Amino acid sequence: MDLNTVTSITPARHRDDLRALAPDVAPLAGGSELFASPQAHLTGLVDLQTFGWPALTVTRDGLEIAATCTLAELSRLPPEPGWNAHPLFLQCCTALFGSFKVWEVATVGGNLCAALPAGPMTTLAAALDAELLVWRRDGTDELLAAADFVTGNSTNVLETGDVLRSLRLPTSSLRSHTAFRSISLSPVGRSGAVLVGRLDSDGGFVLTVTAATVRPIQLRYPSLPEAAGLRRDIDAIDGWFTDAHGAADWRQAMSRLLGEEVRQELERKLQAA
Amino acid sequence: MKLLVNGAPIDAEPAPGQCLRSFLREQQQFDVKKGCDSGDCGACTVLLDGTPFHSCILPAYRAADRAVTTVAGLGTPERLAPIQQRFVDAAGFQCGFCTAGMIVTASTLDEGDLAELPRLLKGNLCRCTGYRAIEDAIRGRGAACGTTSGTTSGTPCGATDNTTPGTPCGTTCAATGDTTPTTADTAEPTSTGAAHGRVGSSLGAPAGARVVSGQEPYTLDIAVPGLLHLGVLQSPHAHARIRSIDVSAAESLPGVHAVLTHADSPATLFSTARHENRLDDPDDTLVFDRVLRFRGQRVAAVVADSVGLAEAACRLIVVDYEELPAVFDPDQALRAGAPLVHGDKDAAASRLADPGRNLVAELHGERGDFEAGLAAGTTVVSGTWQTQRVAHGQLETHATIGWREDDGLVLRTSSQVPFLVHKEICRIFDLDPALVRVFTARVGGGFGGKQELLTEDVVALAVLKTGRPVQYEFTRSDEFRLAPVRHPMRVGVTLAAGADGRLTALGLTVLADTGAYGNHGPGVLFHGCSESLSLYSVPNKRVDAECVYTNNPPSGAFRGYGLGQVVFGIESALDELARRLGIDPFELRRINSVVPTDPFVSAQGEGDDDLAFGSYGLDQCLDLAEAALARGNGAVVPDGPAWRVGEGMASAMIATMPPRGHYSHVSVTATAEGRYTVRVGTADYGSGTSTVHAQIAATALNTSPDRIDFRSSDTDEAGYDSGAFGSTGVVVAGKALLGAATALARELRQLASGRTGLPAHSWALEQGGLRSGELFLTLAELAGPDGVTGVGTESGAERSVAFNVQAFRVAVNTLTGEVRILQSIQSADAGFVMNPAQCRGQIEGGVAQAIGSSLYEEVILDGAGTVTTNVLRNYHLPQLADLPVTEVYFADTADDLGPYGAKSMSESPYNPVAPALANAIRDAIGIRPFELPMSRDRIWRMLQP
């Protein structure tokens, strides 16, 4: 929709251009979130796309995803040898409520910054223990654990003037085996629970719960847990919530159910290996 | 910036925060529609360098130096692109408002994508069709269905059109949507061997080629020089009085032309609901009221050069509110001491049952002796069912453009009832009816939501105040907050029956929350308790129903008009009774349903005198649905121990038109050009009325539809018509049209006789003229320069009844609460089926909408009057992925009252769906749902110990 109070767009080409950011001047990536609801508090936008950040860079340490990388670009990234977690990219893109046409504009960073419980890029980043590079307003850089980025329903750690620059997915996570489960109140509706399990090469297991809780919750184990233990730990999670996409008690129950499915899938993989 | 739009260079600067959608519309690219403005519905889809985007969430400046293609760029009405032609062939649209974006999206899909249609089309919402026809269009099987399964007693939907094989026929392609009929016992079509374009054939929409190429204008698809825009300041409080309001800062903002408040409002109370008889609804509304009774109610309006300026000016208005106690629960609203929503109203003047108790309307009645009937039964069932708020979700939001013309006022509006809007606008503003014109362009869906006066009054005031053309367009969030919703109802049902299954007592209690205003409150309550009760022949009936005010957003008219809610209770209770008695649910209906020898008995009394069995097809509907369910469809039950399978059914009856009169005055003129001009006042908001009208005229005048021009839905162009509600487009306006065309045919024969001396009866109408033996007179010479006109009127004095039976087979996942529909069947008694493909589409669309109400949709409030589901991403309109293909069967009947034996079939398919689905779920899991929607979390919770 038209953002009628916005009177200026600053194309960002240098980090200095971000100084224009203010309580009434927001960073703009794809626009699918900003332009989808009224933003009467904004008078300006700083366009991050003009930075021209390379969307996806395979490095020795893993994969660097620019915050401005679109979901469409991410979904098309071919796998590198040994990237067992690669299917998770498409799975998480498909978990976006928006259509494949929205993938063309929605960005990985924008999805994280929107900080919705059902943000599938939050799922992806947290599940793979991504490090997030944040450009702080004062010119410093900061690396954050992805799971700590979202702090609540639509809130994150960024202060005014800060910008999420990129996500770094470590090779160790990309080589892990993952299992993905999601459910919503309708066949392809907005997610009510999205769970990703990750089985690392050292045998460690991480279960990431998103969409069912207001922020990502991770359960970590040195090795694949027994069903009962996992179930107990999922039950102990605090932060199930109710909205139009599912009641808290159902979300908790679905997390128990899907968490166990994830555990079993990875157990089969472990046995096969 | 420079860009190409459909190959043409454009050089224009967008505003910094402008989205591409509005920029393109500013360039008069009106085929780019607004459905949601939030990237959810897909109506605005365009290609950018060949890639599809939701243009409403794309910053306009990013289109610089790129090539934009809209649906108009894919093909023209004369040279449709193949994908556009396929949408015409498959009747892949009804109102057509989603179609532009649907086709642009579909144009990017290839063969390999078809398996993923549910995912790929989740960003394209259609509220009319139920998607079966859209999927057929995309798969290119518009006409390929072949004959259909059915039984010998029923006319299968879409008997093929004999003269033009290849016409989309609406065959029953069964639940898999495969092109191969899935059942073996195909039956020969038993009727509708109609010539193409005549009644009984599956004529496509006359506007089809224009709709699929984006050339058919809707309400706002017009460039009006000097147009101003209206923005509204909405109440932040659920109940408040305006102590003072300071508009000076707003008024002094450059570009602001007027600020309107309660000081500018006429003092005339009215209702936003529009009925033939304006006394049907309570007069409780002002254009601007000093008292605000729900969050979102108009406080003030700004008329400015742009929407942005109007919004900015609204933010400058300073209001001092005195907050008042509010009530949100309909039970509490009736209690002594509850805050009074309209305590200031005079009961008699506003026609309210008791404003001192928030009581808008009530209905108490008994036939026979209910208590005795209860005692006489060997089995008694009772329960309480709760329905939710549902949004119409029509893709075109409410909108009006108004302007001055000479001394008069013109309103171009998205309405089902232009003539009723005309009458009430004249009343509110004390205007000479001759100086006011109200008309519609093509209307992008309504479903009852546009049987209201929501935008026209304030536009009229703004035009009268400024003298300038003014536009007011609802946002999608306005639709959720301001436009009325389906009345939520608590429905208590008590049934008693003997061991033979014969009902001895039927009792009903209803509590309806009409919200802050009483629009449609009484009508929905009365209608909800009418055909639902009179469907069953029970000696002892009792009803106690109440409709109350609260400080929630208003409820209003919605497809089925209360029946869906009450039928949910009654048909669920009947299912429970069938279980307790060990009687098959179809059989229980056969034992107790009215038959033509019975009177219609509601609890108020012995029926409406004007209601009659013009035909009766319920018996066939029950047989058809039962047989289809028994036959099955080969659908595979999902694997695993968590799944349980069940079957359920429900019936519904509806009167074929509203009570107490529905009027239509139609004329047909033979013109000097040798064509016919039909003037008919009713509106077509996607139900296909105009298509059937073309068929009626073509049949009565023995010509083809392309010889007939329409002047519709315009108070200056057509005779009075009560409008498009109560399923009247065919049975009232269509009947009046048949009368007019028949009168014209008679007149033409007389004229021919007068010219030649040959007897009138020897003359027969042909394409382009009249023939008697070897003699042929052209229509043009008979019509002469002034033309010849026949008129027809219909008053709705007599009403018939139509029936629908829905059946489902479902699988329910007991671990997640998921309901998967394995088979969906609806049989319908539509009388003579005027247009099988279109009628099938109406039924599919009604079932789809009802599945939405049953499983997914709910306008959720926070308990204090705030709508929390105010965007489409939080209010789940069914997507392609959510819906089964419904098998449609028609009873073979012909009605004594309707034109050519037709009956209405637009609201009624909705009504039996929720209880049929609830009954199937009950059958599957052993627990009965009492609440809508039967969402996965609710079903899951029912299953917990």
UniProtKB/TrEMBL annotation, chain A:
Superkingdom field: Bacteria
PROSITE patterns referenced in this protein's UniProt entry, alphabetically: FAD_PCMH (PS51387)
Domain FAD-binding PCMH-type: 1-174
A matching Pfam family: FAD_binding_5
Gene3D superfamilies membership: 3.30.465.10
GO molecular function: FAD binding; oxidoreductase activity
Family annotation (InterPro entries): Diverse_Substr_Oxidored, FAD-bd_PCMH, FAD-bd_PCMH-like_sf, FAD-bd_PCMH_sub2, Mopterin_DH_FAD-bd
TM spans (from-to): none
Name of the molecule in the record: FAD-binding molybdopterin dehydrogenase
UniProtKB/TrEMBL annotation, chain B:
UniProtKB keywords: Iron, Metal-binding, Oxidoreductase
Keyword Ribosomal protein: no
Record's compositionally biased regions (Low complexity): 178-193
Domain of life: Bacteria
Every 2Fe-2S ferredoxin-type domain range: 1-74
Coiled-coil residues: none
Keyword presence, Cell inner membrane: no
Region span, Disordered: 178-201
Record-annotated membrane-spanning stretches: none
Gene Ontology molecular function: any one: oxidoreductase activity
PANTHER family the record matches: XANTHINE DEHYDROGENASE (PTHR11908), XANTHINE DEHYDROGENASE SUBUNIT D-RELATED (PTHR11908:SF157)
Sequence similarity: Belongs to the xanthine dehydrogenase family.
Name of this chain's protein: 2Fe-2S iron-sulfur cluster binding domain-containing protein
Species in which this protein is naturally found: Cryobacterium tagatosivorans
